[in-house]
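Known limitations

Files may contain more than one protein. Parsers should not assume a single record per file. Below, a two-record file is shown to illustrate correct handling: read the sequence, read the token line, then continue until end of file.
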Amino acid sequence: MRILPGAELTFPLQSCLLITQKNLEQRVHNIIIAEEASKANIITSCLQHSSVPNAAHLGISEIYVKKNAMLNFTMIHQWSENTLVRPRSAAEIDDGGIFVSNYVCMRPVRDVQMYPIAYCKGANSRVSFNSILYGHKNSQMDIGSKAVLRGKSSKAEMISRAIAREGSKMIIRGMIEGDSSECKGHLECRGLLMDDESLLQSIPELIAKKKGVEITHEAAVGKISEKEITYLMTRKLSREQAVSLIIRGFMDVGILGLPAALNSEIKSIIDASTEGA
């Protein structure tokens, strides 16, 4: 996929990968080029037909963001309880380029492991990795991202929201490497652990290689406040409705940096997935 120089796309580009064959190993190789001064939003959906119990998805993505280009790439996964998922992605960002990578996984999946990396090699280049994750019964999720800041005044931001329940195992990783004396980065992970059978682990890493690097992180794993539940129940909600409402609020789509219309659509997907949680 190539966005031509100077092109500004009002509506998002969309792609879809669908698995319809049992025991299929789906292999894809994506190349995306955002040419100089272009602006675009891409939404890609990867899903599995309800009649397919077992499958695997193996994907490679190369992304190039040229000078002063802006690319927002949102990936929504809807797999099944017996799917193995292994995406591998890397991005290269030139002077003044902006790359936003969003990952949303709200449906059951057996095992997913991903660790995309972005190289901010240009001056004033920026990258943002955002994840909204919902761990279902016995799901294994190892999700992370890495940013290497090499350009002058380059910046990185990583934000994750994760909920682990029903015996799911979730590892949330993040690494920011500062190779330029004027670079900045921030990593944030917030998680909710819903029961004693699940596991939620946050692994932030900061690496500074030059004097003057400014990179920070914060991580928090906790539970839903009983005070919040009680308050909502005084507003005539059942306990289940109160918990569901809190979860939907926690999965804040505002972190994805999408236009208002797309924000609304993604929010509807999340609301549907957490209904009755």
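...continuing to the second record:
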Amino acid sequence: MEKCEGAKMKKGQLPLLAELTLAANEDSTAKQNCKFSGTGNHRHLRVIRALQIRPRKREEIDRIAGASNGPALIAELRRRGLHIPCDRVPGIDRDGFLVKFGVYSLSEDDRRKVRMWQRRLNGGKA
């Protein structure tokens, strides 16, 4: 299994802090060039399938995964080799305040990595 350079968490470091640290310290091409190691986790698989259809808000990721910490789940997929950008999209919350929602999507490189991983699982068949 190929490792992404700089994708290790320090001992005792919380996943979210690790993601912030990685984003601040690594070469932006390091993650994009690494191979997706795959997953058998049902929550991961549900989120990947949903993101293949369209971008999803953080709250949607929670519901789709069946977990209440979507950002940690996305962080785990990033450590496995996907980029999964999060765009901040302006909107209005239920109290009428202007906010920026986090919207996750698969990059074209992520889509290619997922397709290659799926082919490996299927013995080279698409």
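Parsers that stop after the first record will miss the second one. For reference, the second record is described as follows. Helices lie at 15-25, 28-33, 42-53, 58-65, 70-79, 108-121.
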